[in-house]
User: What shape does this take?
Amino acid sequence: MSTFNFPFSTILVKTIKYPNIAGVEQLLARPAQNLDSLREPTLAVLRDVCSNGDDALRKYTLQFDRVDLADFKVSAAEFDAAEEMLCSDLKQAILLAAGNIRKFHSAQKEHAQKIETMPGVLCWRKSVGIERVGLYIPGGSAPLFSTVLMLGIPAKIAGCRQITLCTPPDKQGNIHPAILYAARQVGLTDLYRVGGIQAIGAMAFGTKSIPKVDKIFGPGNAYVTAAKQLVSNMGVAIDMPAGPSEVMVLADEIANPQFVAADLLSQAEHGPDSQVVLVTTHEPLISQVEQAIEEQLRALPRADLANKSLTDSQILLVKNDDEMLAVANIYAPEHLIISTENAEQMAEGVINAGSVFIGNYSPESAGDYASGTNHALPTAGYARSFSGVSVDSFVRKITFQKLSQEGIRNIGATVAQMADNEGLQAHRNAVTFRIK
Amino acid sequence: MSTFNFPFSTILVKTIKYPNIAGVEQLLARPAQNLDSLREPTLAVLRDVCSNGDDALRKYTLQFDRVDLADFKVSAAEFDAAEEMLCSDLKQAILLAAGNIRKFHSAQKEHAQKIETMPGVLCWRKSVGIERVGLYIPGGSAPLFSTVLMLGIPAKIAGCRQITLCTPPDKQGNIHPAILYAARQVGLTDLYRVGGIQAIGAMAFGTKSIPKVDKIFGPGNAYVTAAKQLVSNMGVAIDMPAGPSEVMVLADEIANPQFVAADLLSQAEHGPDSQVVLVTTHEPLISQVEQAIEEQLRALPRADLANKSLTDSQILLVKNDDEMLAVANIYAPEHLIISTENAEQMAEGVINAGSVFIGNYSPESAGDYASGTNHALPTAGYARSFSGVSVDSFVRKITFQKLSQEGIRNIGATVAQMADNEGLQAHRNAVTFRIK
Assistant: This one.
């Protein structure tokens, strides 16, 4: 049992009844995540890694992770030991999850389709894996081996040739065996025990030990987020901007209060800044969910984190299904759970969300781990413009064209006309010389 | 004829014979584009637009575009007038190009495919257009109506609901009729005569006249590029980082020196910082191309721009086809033209490029205008990690899942096991409560 002292009796979460939908954007505004104050200290570490390579990595690993490392790369013997050490139930779970994730992501591979836009003008595009990618797996309170699967599997399907994984070591210099096991199952071999800003710098610039990459993926704390943002302005691509994790649940009278409470808490336990919102048309559900939250919360080891995040969370009571859907599309949640009578129909109307969970038996944690969809998703409203990680994130779609002599004749006058009118005579020549 | 005084006799471009391939990355290093010095002045304009909205737009439009505007939005009457004014040859050309671009991009629409990863676990993803997008079309020396097609057509195919286009006015406050005509053909109606940093700010923050958008697309000068980079750290997505345009031509004995020269010049005329590289295995081609460049250059109205960019360009003589391809993949050019005997086979080996043009009859200008592929492509080596603009750029791929009771039972133990081992008890509960 947690020894946490509950500072509340029954009402846990702020409840707003029948808000004006026009004001919902303001009402649900996320706390601003201001990385400006992290800019200078983060830049200082990045510059040091850029200039001093492995020496800087060693220095910061001693400073932040409290371990003095001779070698960053994880050896084959360590992978072997991890495999031996891990309990077989967890191994089986990782294998089953990996299988589902592989099945879902394999269908995302795009096959080139040649299109003759005019006779003799053949155009197509081909997905080609980004050559060198870097995956960051944070340390901290939980070993995120599930994220190894979520990033490693699409990278492999995409055909990336060089996949580097960085993750911080513990005070003995070790990596959690489940991370090593998951990595090996996915086919990743280049793992480095480096974390934080220094890991992002190592992958962005390259050091003697750690190769430079073209794109960096993965979650992290505010410093890692700031470092990714900074290197993204220095020629390295990143997966997406990051913010605290979030869930919105839409629920009506068919929702089960126990399930709803569990879903809200499973988001809230991620950390004190997690965003949790319940939107319902069914007023009695509110107190039922609140009661269930209170009961479930008492049994949670991470109750303090969860409770902190719940105090910033909200319950909205709205008039009808249309308002529920409108609120979801305005908020653009990372995870959207729809526990309503007409859940599937409502899901059709979702415009802004990272991933949608339909009906009473689709908890967010299914997608977090094992159903097959990716759990690296846009937060902080970025679902309005970003997709979650998929095979797409690990490829470039290169376009190709081959024109025959007939093709250039068919298209030539058009190109010449347009080039002329844009004042680009040499563009015109490139066509007219070929038609002559 | 240009009155430009040629500062060279025969050798125009720096030629390097048989370089060590390991040193090619260094050899072809692009001049660094340092936007740091633009950060503060650009931020100042952005902040002003954020605080003062239309008043700031009016102020900067007077200051930079030399016109005092009462209204930013282009009226229906102006669209009508443009259509009347434009010569029918150009109209036809725009229509033909638009048709090809539409045909090529329509095939990029992804259709949802439901995948049952385990019995009762149904997952799928659906492409949904970004609700609010902003297109920026630069002014300057040429009216880039082709870019209106290249951005507007995929935005429409993607199903974006609100498409805003900003482009700077001339000193009379007008927009070039070809831009208006192209916009109307594509189905764009919300055009605003605002350019530069202030246009990017208007679309990023919204003003009374110009609505806020979620993602901003389009080329621009260094200030526009800096503004896009800055707002991309403030919650608005952008298409890709931008740099000077570039072409690499791979050529052997089957290449036509006139065509190669025209292709190099059609890139060079874009501006003094355009990057132009010829890689060949056929030494005699070098002097032939140089001679053709000199002849063609004399007849070009933009000879001064083209010549400036040529002096920074390079010709590489390499040993064989493998080296040619290796150089292309190291450089990662925006445009890659392959004029070789085995061009199609060589194209198969391309890993890093924005768009590839195969054979003697596929000039870059075909793709710039009318073949159907997109001309908004990654420059500055970003082809290593970014794709060009496509329908993908205008959608989010939202994932969905629906588990049945059988599904949650099939997956439950796995989720519980993994959640336990990541120390996330509430994640476990969300599943176990549903299985009970």
